[in-house]
Amino acid sequence: MPVGNRILQRKRSVDQRLVKAFAELPVAVVSDSMSRVFAGGSNLRPMHRDGNLAGVALTVRTRPGDNLMLHKAIDMAEPGDVIVCDAGGDTTNALMGELMLAYAVKKGVAGFVLNGALRDLDGFRETNLPTFAAGVTHRGPYKNGPGEINTPINLGGMVIEPGDLIIGDSDGMLAVPYDDAETVLEAAKAKQAAEEKQMAAIHAGENDRSWVDTALKTAGCEMV
């Protein structure tokens, strides 16, 4: 099977129970619970109107400006999948527009992450399917290949395996590895509870700020 031009089957997927649980958590909280070292890139911005992204990764790798494998991925998608496409971050040509979007909605796709551009932005906003992309352009794509489906991809240094959990909100998108999803969920739930407690203390005028001076002293800061 030629490397760079192959279609594989996904062997595992995070459970829908986890998808639903993560959908209720801010991406920033989950990111903090993963030591703040994972990110899909700050250039991947939401192109839909509002709402959070959560689903199972169906990965696509394609050459810049070509969407043949992206078309095939939509054909293969199962309800609840998030199609994550690495097109090298190039925004010269759009990877998809409103026709592909309409078909994806019909298939039950939960959303898209495109490391490339899209077009028909008004259609994406109106349809409001959670979609993240690196840019927008009116120039259409090519359909020649090559590419890969259901192989590991890399977005901004973040490796995404087929079947990983993909989440996103207005702060950006994040992949939670399949093997770590349960552990990250428990840590994120605990952090969210702690932040809610801190917010309540702020509103009550009881927020403890002594940690700031302690951190400055630990850092050796001279306070005159």
Automatic annotation (TrEMBL):
Cofactor: a divalent metal cation
UniProt keyword terms in alphabetical order: Methyltransferase, Transferase
Coiled coil: none
Position of the signal peptide: none
Record-level Gene Ontology MF annotations: methyltransferase activity
Superkingdom of the source species: Bacteria
One Pfam family hit: RraA-like
One of the GO BP terms on file: methylation
Name of the protein in its database record: Putative 4-hydroxy-4-methyl-2-oxoglutarate aldolase
The organism of origin for this protein: Salinicola acroporae
